[in-house]
Amino acid sequence: MSKEIKIGVFGCSRGMNYAKLFAQDDAFEIVAFCDKNEERLRRAAETYPDIPVFPDFEGFIAYGSEHGMNAVFLANYFHEHAPYAIKVMEAGMAALSECLPAATLKQCCDLVRATERLGGKYMFCENYPFMTGNIELARLCREGILGTVMYLEGEYNHHDDPAALFGRSRGKYHWRNWEPRCYYLSHSLAPLMAMSGGIPRYVSAQAAVSQLQKERFTFRAVSDGMAQMLCKFDNGAVARFSGCNGIASGYSAYRAFGDRGAAEWGAHTDRKIRLHFSSWNCPEGVPETQFYDPAETVCRTDPDAAKGLSAGHGGSDYLVVRKIVAFLRDGVLPYFDVYRAAAISATAALALKSCLANGEMYRIPDFRSAEEMKEVENDDLTPFYDDEGHGGTIRPSLEYTPEQFDKVGVFNG
Q1: d(CA 190, CA 209)
Q2: Is residue 229 domain-shared with residue 115, that is, in the same domain?
Q3: Whole domain around residue 144: which residue ranges?
Q4: What is the pLDDT of residue 410?
Q5: What's the pLDDT score for residue 390?
Q6: Of 73, 94, 307, 344, which residue is least crowded by CB atoms under 10 Å?
Q7: 325 inside domain
Q8: Triad 393, 399, 403: Cα angle to 5°
């Protein structure tokens, strides 16, 4: 089979997990690596000695253009995807964003408009919807087994110890030190979108300060320990979900409630699906409550799921790679296209505003509507800074602590 997808990897930290999968797949040829970090670039060169590495994005893209590169996997800093995705598409290549693509509402509009203007190929490579438990929950919703899905929950908890987090967030203005808890929400929200088929249209959010993290994580400007959001989807479903909460690491959970039954999956169910029907509404011959391994169902119907179980994040990384192949080689449009990616990004940006306004409800634009985009096209408020300490224009936390950091930027809200 010819290696039709000639891919470049931008970002050699998380990007190396996917590079391993690309290297094992006959559909891919890795053309080049790019990272401004010398140590990460050195490790990439040692791992793949025949593939050139570049410390600058311009040189990386120029080399790729000369050598047939037709896609770039974006695994760069969390808050910088949209500008680079646009550059990739302007170079005539597909942009594959590993995490949340836009840090501001303006970036959401810029990314959507660039994709439309260029006829570009863009895919948001969020992986949590492709964990076996979430795949099974989506099937139960899609096939009507739960009835009309009215309410969903998603919770992603990840609590690092201070030394580990400091090791990943060196530098005063590193994005992790300024990231609001509500921003890292795609692991919670995206699976619920796949389950319900809905797109978030309204969001209200609240956050809470952790005194322990405030005392121990002194290198961070954000002392919020958790953020929780409530959304109304365009199809009428209601969802409650978290950001990346710094509590109970590994205790993540997902639930879907319909008018016929409910199902849940996560650490609290020992990674088994719990499917429940009310006694008066239980299908004939089916127990009111049952527990089962989602892999048994998912792998029986999807050979790729069975192959990928040993890959990262419970096999979801492998399935993301197969979705990339389906998109770029076979023309199957991704579920998480630029419009859904923009909606998730806008939910994060507006959730921060809501947290700072004690839970005020905000409308999330429909990014298929030119008129609705006009209303937010100049909203460039961001909690993030560049390496020199410029750019932050909105408080990242309920409690900003100037005694820990030099006061920079202009804070609105």
Answers
A1: 25
A2: no
A3: 128-302+338-413
A4: 38
A5: 86
A6: 307
A7: no
A8: 85
Residues facing residue 29 across a β-bridge:
6
How many residues are given for the chain? 413
Distances (CA, A) of 391 to 101, 175, 380: 18, 12, 10
Tokens 């964003």 belong to 97
Rounded CA-CA distance 11/76 in Å is 5
- Does residue 228 come out as left (phi exceeding 0), alpha (psi in the -120 to 50 range) or beta? beta
Burial per residue of 256-273, b for 16 or more beta-carbon CB atoms within 10 angstroms, e otherwise: bbbebbbbbbbeebeebb
Chain centroid to Cα 387, Å, comes to 23
Sign of the dihedral defined by the CA atoms of residues 75, 170, 185, 343, in that order:
negative
Residue 407 pLDDT level (bands cut at 50, 70, 90) = very low
Residues 6+ apart with CB under 8 A from 338: 111, 112, 115, 122, 124, 367
CATH number at residue 38: 3.40.50.720
Mean pLDDT of 19-33: 97
Under the banding of pLDDT at 50, 70 and 90, the label for residue 157 is confident
Please provide the DSSP assignment of 13-61 as one string.
STHHHHHHHHHT-TTEEEEEEE-S-HHHHHHHHHHSTTS-EESSHHHHH
Check whether residue 258 and residue 344 sit in a common domain.
Answer: yes
H/E element, 94: strand 94-97
Kindly state the tokens that stand for 333.
């449009």
Structure tokens at 239: 């969802």
- Per the structure, the count of domains in the chain is 2
